[in-house]
Write a structure and sequence with these properties.
Elements: E1 6-12, H1 22-30, H2 40-63, H3 71-87, E2 93-99, H4 106-116, E3 120-125, H5 132-149, E4 155-160, H6 165-181, E5 197-203, H7 207-211, H8 216-233, E6 241-247, H9 260-270, E7 274-278, H10 286-289, H11 291-302, E8 308-310, H12 318-331, E9 338-339
Parallel strand pairs: 1-2, 1-3, 3-4, 4-9, 5-6, 5-7, 7-8
Helix pairs in contact: 1-2, 3-12, 4-5, 6-8, 6-12
């Protein structure tokens, strides 16, 4: 029987809520040892330097969004939707939010959870694919905050859900709708009229992190493959091409690729319409609303892409929220990490940072 009172803690990145918060937000980000892998004194200096240098450009980005990030408001909407679904199972679920780099952070959330006094805590990242730089970092920060708050409640982490059926179905359905709206029939793809190209765009990572055993890229590939398989298995899906790519490169390091801009340019050369889906973001924020909607759209126009359609993040899509609800329910009676695959470990053994 499931414990009586269950606290569900949603992990997300967080974002500055005012222009004045931009620099401290960036400092918190680059002072994370999972982001900037340097010894503490060096990391502290570099975080201060990088945040100072990047703040003016970042403020211009957030100016497009009214001066701050909408991520917290969007996460609250997801928390409310999940709460409503869980209340159908039991009135003893309560959902909390812990942002990694801006308020409300893990310390505040841990105090709220302690006051709730649950029988079990379930940690649910709003990152479908696991990386030590996202879910791993948030989990470690939560463990620190929980110890500080005196929380020793049994805790289960939902480590990842890259192929959760509801999430995959929700994404495939939205792509199909756009493909049908574009009016492409079976004759598409004859060389004169190329089919639309679905670009699955995910946040990038430096290559050395993936080479060190981080499962993120592999899991992103599984998500894209699952969506493509569902599309191709449906008789009503019009013809399409697809490619997986990565956005948001920063700094001088070599990053995984191909980049989203490279794939947009290739689509321009091929005269293919572009349907761009943020495959690793489930909430709208600066990297979807500014990078994808403004910067990459302008780049697409420059590259001769006549049709550029950016699909929205999943947000509170019903199938997606039901998928999260099912993951929470499956986590309510186990101490082991939970992922969207039942049974054995999802990731290949060589991906050593996989928590399962």
């Amino acid at each position: 029987m499931a414990p009586k009172k269950i606290a569900v803690v949603l992990f997300n990145l967080g974002g500055p809520d005012t222009p004045a918060a931009v620099r401290p937000f960036l400092f918190n980000l680059f002072n994370d040892p999972d982001i900037l892998e340097k010894p503490w004194p060096v990391r502290l200096f570099l975080a201060a330097l990088i945040s100072s240098l990047r703040a003016p450009k970042a403020r211009k980005i957030y100016a497009h969004l009214g001066g701050g990030s909408p991520l917290l408001a969007n996460t609250k909407s997801q928390a409310d939707a999940l709460s409503r679904l869980l209340s159908e199972e039991s009135s003893e679920y309560r959902v909390f939010i812990a942002m990694r780099y801006w308020n409300p952070r893990s310390d505040e959330a841990a105090q709220q959870v302690r006051d709730f006094d649950p029988d079990r805590i379930i940690l649910l990242p709003l990152y479908p694919q696991f990386s030590k730089t996202t879910t791993g970092s948030s989990s470690r920060d939560w463990a620190r905050a929980a110890r500080k708050a005196g929380l020793d409640t049994p805790t289960t982490t939902i480590c990842c859900y890259p192929t959760a059926p509801g999430m995959v179905t929700a994404q495939a359905a939205r792509i199909t709708e756009v493909l049908c709206d574009l009016g492409r029939g079976p004759e598409s793809g004859d060389g004169r009229n190329p089919p639309p190209r679905v670009l699955f765009s995910a946040h990038g990572l430096p290559k050395h992190i993936v080479a060190g055993g981080d499962p993120y890229q592999w899991q992103v590939e599984q998500t894209a493959a699952a969506i493509v398989a569902e599309l191709k298995n449906a008789a009503e899906t019009p013809p399409f091409d697809s490619a997986l790519c990565y956005q948001s490169r920063v700094g001088p390091l070599e990053w995984i690729g191909p980049s989203t801009m490279e794939e947009i340019a290739r689509a321009g050369e091929d005269k293919a319409p572009v349907i761009l889906l943020p495959i690793a973001f489930v909430s709208e924020h600066s990297e979807t609303l500014v990078e994808l909607d403004i910067e990459y759209r302008q780049f697409a126009e420059q590259q001769g892409v006549e049709t550029y359609i950016r699909l929205p993040a999943l947000a509170t899509a019903e199938l997606f929220m039901v998928a999260l609800k099912e993951l929470v329910i499956s986590a309510a009676t186990t101490d082991d990490p939970v992922c969207s695959r039942e049974g054995p470990r999802l990731c290949p053994q060589g991906l050593i940072h996989c928590p399962r």
